[in-house]
Specification:
By secondary structure, the protein is an all-alpha fold. It is built from two helices and no strands. The relative contact order is 0.05.
Length: 112
């Protein structure tokens, strides 16, 4: 039950961020159109700066997050490679011991 509440809460936060981002980008498009026509007011300039800074901050956050995910992925990849190498070595050892046991059993049978 707690997992579902956390999941729903996370979904709500994501949706809220997406709405805010969409609104901010719509404002940016309007402000850019005004800037193209040379019609920006001082209030528009303040809004423009705030929206651009918010976009840059969000982009930086996502880049850091992506970098962390990439680093974690690389660590897992290395662990998988190490585990596969260990499995290969263990199987080789197993085969070596099985061959030794077969030789011992064969030599025991030969002595009888």
């Amino acid at each position: 039950m707690n997992t579902r509440a956390r999941h729903d809460s996370r979904r709500g936060r994501v949706a809220t961020r997406e709405v805010a981002r969409d609104e901010r980008r719509a404002r940016l498009r309007i402000l850019l159109a005004r800037a193209d026509r040379g019609l920006l007011t001082p209030e528009d300039c303040t809004q423009f700066r705030g929206d651009v800074e918010a976009e840059v901050a969000e982009c930086d956050t996502h880049r850091r997050s992506a970098g962390g995910h990439q680093a974690a992925s690389m660590r897992l990849h290395k662990r998988i490679e190490a585990a596969e190498q260990c499995i290969t070595e263990t199987e080789a050892e197993r085969d070596q011991y099985a061959a030794q046991i077969r030789r011992l059993l064969t030599s025991e049978e030969g002595r009888r």
